[in-house]
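Q: How would the structure tokens look for this protein?
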Amino acid sequence: MTVETMEEDTTDTDEYANEPVVDEDQAKEAAKFLQQNCYSVSLEVPWFSTSKKLTDDRKKELLGANVEGAAYSMAKQLFDSGHDAIKRLNSAKIALTAYRDSKTIPMAQLPLNGGVLMMLKEQGLVADDSRDASRATQEFLQKEAGVRVIMVADIDEFDNHVRTILIPNLMTALETANNALPEIIEDAKGRLDEKDIDSRDWPEKLIVGVRGPDYRQMGVDVDFEQNCPEAAARLRESGEQWYLDNVKLAVGDFANSFMAACALAAQQLSHRVKLAPPEGEWKYLEGAEVREIFETSDDSSLEEGQISIEVFYLPDGAKKKKTETIGPFTRAQYEALNPMTQDAQRKVFDSTFEKLLNDMARFTEIRNMLGELGGPMDGIVKKVRDMLKAADIESASDATTQVKRSNFFRKTAAGVFADAAGAMESVVEGLPVRKAKRRRAIGKR
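A: Here is the predicted structure in token form.
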């Protein structure tokens, strides 16, 4: 086996940094597709917020006639309960909004164009008071609250699933929670100081409503187009930028979500692995950190199935650590070096992989709405999907089982996820959307 010593390279590299991202002609084609093949859908579940200050109108919607601030605070405590009935209610709400988001893309706020604004207000797509002059000076695209975009071809399936399964499930969970309300209130009281409790403040029942789903045509009305072709053409032309904004916002929304999920997975998988080899040739590497794992795709001198590894360690009697590349190894030989992480660092959460798998499923559903502008993301998602498929990972539990069983998978997957996060970051860089914070993988240089 060979040993190659090298200087430690601390330079950050990004192989995707110079990739072209947004092509305006492709974006316009995608916007045209959106206008011709999509409707807006409004589906919202008013809910108790744990972080936002709600208006009196929203409190009234959540509490009925009682809009006292204390009553709202008490009711919110109930939705923070760990009672099984509240967990089921919260889960039913999450299932509804998750399904909505999996089949739709965000709708962009309108630019301040009088003709477009008037047209869409008349169609009921936006409320009269939903826009202000700040939109003209906003640096980033903004989402329209409570309204999203759906393919016309998906509406029947979407509407049936929402109305016959998800909303009834939510209402059933609500009924169960109300039947258990005395127990839920007692649970909430246990988390509060007595001075904060007033029996008059507890609501008599929990109220959860669903607005929608309601559908509206996004483009110019067909009858209007036939009867007033010139006016319709001007409206369509003036609204072009808004449709373009919708596509860019949707691309940025998905890219940000997938980037964050991949970066988090890479971070959780890339906690520094140290060797604990048995007595023998490699014992001098006791405590050495595994920095990189190279395969034949990285090093043509390796045979199929072989790997080499880059380690960082302090030689006996030395004052300074050095980096070495050792190998080649088979996978079994590498595992025999006993690469380990600290127990506290080894945890990879099911929720991390669940979000990744959900994002990839969502991409399949919304891909047509992104048009050619979604092209740069196809290869990125495919690379992650192929890696998980090769490891027989179809669920979050499959992934975490594989992580615990194979250090090789752990390191390989960390690299794939880190590369995917970097690639998605380059997609976002070319769009007028806010970029999500990317967590840098521990151990990545």
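The longest helix spans residues 240-269.

The mean pLDDT is 76.

Upvote if useful.
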